[in-house]
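[audit] Reproducing an earlier prediction to check determinism. Same input, same settings, fresh worker. If the tokens differ from the archived copy the diff job will pick it up downstream; this log only records the rerun itself.
[audit] input (246 residues):
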Amino acid sequence: RLRTESRYQVGPSARSDELERRGRIRATPRGVYLLGPARLWYSDVLGITRISVASLATAELKVLPPIKPVQIIEAPATTRQTPDVRTRPHRFPTEDYFQFREYLTGDDTRRIHWRLSMRSGRLTVKRPETREITKREILVVIDSYLPKGRALNAAHGADEILDGVVEAALGLTRHLVDGGDKVILAAAALATDHSAIQMETLFARPGAVTRWQDLGARVQWQGDFELTDLMEEVDHQAHAIVVSAR
């Protein structure tokens, strides 16, 4: 996927035993790439004779995915009364137990209890005894499953699609973390020693964004962990968001 080939020429004036050459790579998409071994040879100026040199040197190139901003769009209004993907439960004003206290400047006037205020002779407001939940624990799952065989080996444009899935998941994670939520990232990714695809979970801490990107760089299409298996492996009971290309 790098769509490039690098060629370097070392002149006869070079006397060092070790040489290093660097150049720009034209396209570096997200992922982990194993480069090498390099092909080296000596040749005369005219290129008539050539002597190949065996080389075992390899290098690893890891391209971290960018974290792009996401915009959460509120669901459109609906006339349905039954639970639906576009409806959400809400608390009615009479569904909670309330405590009462004297009205203070700046209080929400909609919470004034007028009957009690008339009895006591002073403005009284009600406030719920229960406290609203300020933080949520959310599981963000990157779904990279494709069936083994033809679909996994010959999916047209699959690499670009997976890049979009990873970028969307990381952008959503950043949005949730910035909003104060606790986020756990889960994905099937290439192991750090490149031996196999394995399940990984990661607590998305605000100060460790590079670790999110490292996990995103190692996510590959795989046919070992179906989404249901992945969810059972994590065994998470809180809110869950699955980012998928299905």
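[audit] rerun output stored. Observation attached for the diff report: The first strand starts at residue 31 and ends at 35.
[audit] end
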